[in-house]
Amino acid sequence: MSNNLKWGILGPGKIARKFAEELQVVENAEIYAVASRDMDRAKQFGSDFNPSKVYGSYLELAQDDEVDVVYVATPHAFHFEYTMLCLKHGKHVLVEKPMGMNEAEVETMMNEARSRGLFLMEGLWTRFVPATGKLLELINNKVIGDIVAIRADFGFKSKMDMQGRLFEKKLGGGSLLDIGIYPVYLSLLILGIPVDIMATARMTKTGVDSYCSMMFSYDNHSKASLESTLEAHTPIEAYIYGTHGKIKVATRFHHSERIELYEEEDIIEHYDLKYSGNGYVHEIEEVQNCIKEGKTESPRLPLKTSLQLTRILDKVRAEIGLQYE
């Protein structure tokens, strides 16, 4: 392996473009290859980012011995298939969230990576932005005492295109897996695994959720009230309530740059925490550092966390009657 890590990008969509922009500014990261099932899309991406190789199939990228690590950025429903393809061809993988469509997929991916000694991580950039680190520091230091409740939302008004990715069941559409995963992940990060899950949703004619409301309960009697929607713009904020105050993670909480510490209704401290680039830099640096240190998973976002997150999402889906093929 050269000093540079050679990245392959599998699925050159909108998020892959943002990711590639960030790769260009990360030290020792090289955009080496891009692959799409549509060669014209691959060539367009190639003209914008100038990788060494442009492929019209995912298999060709996976078979390229020069590729060190692959970023899988396809629609949700294909994360499992193409992550497994890359792992079986000896590639480290960063796969966009959600890691898989259900617990069985995620467990299979984990076992494959571990059996081959390869790095695997879910692309939850939230864990690596500076604001999340500060939030965990404040919570662990009991600055607001014991946590009694969390409230977090994520919503935007989408064009109600029932043929689009967000509403297509075969592509893993719906608000829960696309954006609801962020408030659910925040609750897992802070409060752990809930002992009881209640959820309700509004479903579209395509059979996916356009709105999902969740209430989680925990052994210590704390609660998490979480919401995701494709029907309306919401604040996209998070509040963590403790016995001695509260913390507000300012919009957009999943990659925030400001945390406010409250006593009653008064701000007593605030923290401005800028992230690099558009926010993906920190996630990329984590992957690079782990691979270069010979780690097969991130200590900050271990595979067991992604498995726990998937299990919670599976239970929410069971509550709202959301079934994928």
Automatic annotation (TrEMBL):
Which keywords describe this protein according to UniProt?
Oxidoreductase
GO molecular function terms noted in the UniProt entry: nucleotide binding; oxidoreductase activity
E.C. designation(s):
1.-.-.-
Domain named Gfo/Idh/MocA-like oxidoreductase N-terminal: which ranges? 5-123
Q: Which residues belong to any copy of the GFO/IDH/MocA-like oxidoreductase domain? A: 135-247
Q: Which family does it belong to?
A: Belongs to the Gfo/Idh/MocA family.
Identification of the protein by name:
Putative oxidoreductase YcjS
Gene name of the encoded protein: ycjS
